[in-house]
Write a structure and sequence with these properties.
Elements lengths: L3 H8 L3 H4 L5 H10 L1 H16 L17 H8 L5 H8 L9 H19 L3
The structure holds zinc ion.
């Protein structure tokens, strides 16, 4: 099983994925609201938009901009079940369990923290 660092390094090989970055206004938003709030939002998005076996707007459930967690989801290939399947071999059409959801949230938050540190 790959670690968060290994996953993030692998994503660096993708021009599309590395095209996503937090803008200054996103960083300000995160600092003002606190990282715990962002993590809670990430948990909500993953639970409501990625975890269900069936998602009505599958493939389009994650906007390309507008919120730091959305950017993280695209940067980490955790934007839809198709990308999760392609990058992490997560089977589609089966509900994600708590552990899988937590792993995704941890990856998203690691990406966000790296961005906040300018890495
Ligand atoms: Zn996707």
């Amino acid at each position: 099983m790959q670690t968060i660092d290994e996953a993030l390094d692998k994503l660096k090989a993708s021009k599309f994925r590395t095209g996503f970055a937090l803008k200054e206004k996103d960083k300000v938003y995160i600092r003002e609201n606190g990282i715990d709030t962002i993590r809670r939002h990430a948990q909500d998005f993953v639970r409501e938009r990625l975890a269900p076996a069936f998602i009505p707007n599958a493939g389009k459930q994650t906007p390309m901009h507008g919120y730091p967690v959305f950017l993280a989801q695209h940067a980490c290939a955790c934007c839809c079940r198709g990308c999760l399947n392609k990058w992490y071999h997560v089977p589609q059409s089966i509900e994600l369990n708590e552990r899988q959801q937590q792993k995704i949230v941890n990856l998203l938050m690691a990406w966000i923290e790296r961005q906040m540190q300018g890495k």
